[in-house]
Amino acid sequence: MKALKTAIAIVFTMSLLASYSFAQGQGRGLRCQQRFAEFDTNKDGNVTLSEFMAVDHPRGEDQAKAMFKVKDTDNDGQLTQAEFCPRA
Question: What is the 3-state secondary structure (H, E, C) of the chain?
């Protein structure tokens, strides 16, 4: 009986942790989409380097440019929402 209670407690805890992680991931995705919309000042569905650089970047311009280059996976000089928020 004690083993059954322990197993139930473990399963319950694991399901709570899984649902919390899922909810946190959804929240990050939504925040990323909102951030993308803020960067996309002309609302064309893409973020150009100039739009990206118009926002203050705490780690500096060089780091921001490097981040943009990494996110621009198709090297077209602009970020789609899928490139900006790859897990959203």
Answer: CHHHHHHHHHHHHHHHHHHHHHHHHHHHHHHHHHHHHHHCCCCCCEEEHHHHHCCCCCCCHHHHHHHHHHHCCCCCCEEEHHHHCCCC
